[in-house]
Backbone:
C-alpha cells in the first residue's frame, strides 16, 4: 500500500519506465507505508538496471524501512550478489543495524541438540531475527560469498546488536555454517565473546550438535 508508480515500475523490474517517471521530476525519496523508498523497491525487483537508474538519480542507499532493513540488508537477505555489489559500489553501509527487538528466548533444541518441527522453524526464525546487520544475515543464511564481500567492505565482525547478543560467528555456530565461520575467523572474529546468557560460539555449536563447526572452532 502507498506505492507510487515509480515504486511499482522498479518492483516489476521496468528500468526504462522508471527512468521516464523520474524524468518528470518525481522525487526518488518518497517512501511507502512500510517506509520503503523507490530504491528499496528496486532491490525487491531484483534488477540491477533499475537499481542503477534510481541510484544515478540520487536515491539514498542507506535508508532503513520500518522493519529496520536497509536496501543492502535486503539484497543480502535475498542472496543477490549483483545487487549487493551495486549497492556497495554506491557506498552502502554494511554496518547499519536496526534497533534490537524485544528479548527472546534462544532457539529451542531437543536433548540431542537437533531442532525439530515447529520448534525448529521457530529456532530458524529466531536466528534470522537476531541477524540485525548485513554480515549477520549472510552468516545465518550461509550466503558466504556475500559474507566475504561484507568483510572486504569493513563490516564489523564482532557486532552483536540483537536481543540475544549473538555475533556473526555465534550465528554460524547455531546454524552449522562451517564455511562462514572459517571466513569470520580469518576476518578477526572473537571466540571469547559471550551472548546475553553467557554462551560463546563454541558453546552454541556444541549445544546445537554442529560437529563440523565445533571442530573448527576448537582448533582456532
Residues:
Amino acid at each position: 500500500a502507498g506505492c507510487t508508480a515509480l515504486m511499482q515500475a522498479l518492483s516489476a523490474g521496468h528500468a526504462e519506465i522508471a527512468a521516464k517517471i523520474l524524468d518528470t521530476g518525481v522525487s526518488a525519496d518518497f517512501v511507502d507505508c512500510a517506509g520503503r523508498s523507490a530504491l528499496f523497491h528496486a532491490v525487491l525487483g531484483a534488477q540491477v538496471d533499475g537499481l542503477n537508474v534510481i541510484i544515478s538519480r540520487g536515491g539514498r542507499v542507506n535508508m532503513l524501512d520500518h522493519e529496520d532493513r536497509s536496501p543492502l540488508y535486503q539484497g543480502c537477505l535475498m542472496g543477490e550478489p549483483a545487487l549487493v555489489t551495486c549497492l556497495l559500489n554506491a557506498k552502502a553501509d554494511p554496518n547499519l543495524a536496526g534497533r534490537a527487538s524485544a528479548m527472546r528466548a534462544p532457539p529451542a533444541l531437543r536433548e540431542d541438540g537437533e531442532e525439530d518441527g515447529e520448534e525448529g522453524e521457530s529456532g530458524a526464525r529466531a536466528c534470522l531475527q537476531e541477524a540485525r546487520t548485513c554480515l549477520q544475515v549472510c552468516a545465518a543464511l550461509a550466503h558466504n560469498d556475500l559474507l566475504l564481500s561484507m568483510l572486504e567492505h569493513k563490516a564489523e565482525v564482532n557486532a552483536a546488536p540483537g536481543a540475544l547478543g549473538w555475533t556473526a560467528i555465534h550465528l554460524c555456530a547455531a546454524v552449522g555454517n562451517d564455511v562462514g565461520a572459517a571466513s569470520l575467523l580469518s576476518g578477526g572474529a572473537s571466540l571469547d565473546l559471550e551472548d546475553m546468557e553467557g554462551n560463546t560460539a563454541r558453546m552454541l555449536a556444541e549445544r546445537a550438535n554442529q560437529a563440523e563447526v565445533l571442530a573448527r572452532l576448537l582448533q582456532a
Remarks:
- The CA atoms of residues 9 and 18 lie 6 Å apart.
- The domain at 124-219 is CATH 1.25.40.20 (Serine Threonine Protein Phosphatase 5, Tetratricopeptide repeat).
- The chain has a mean pLDDT of 89.
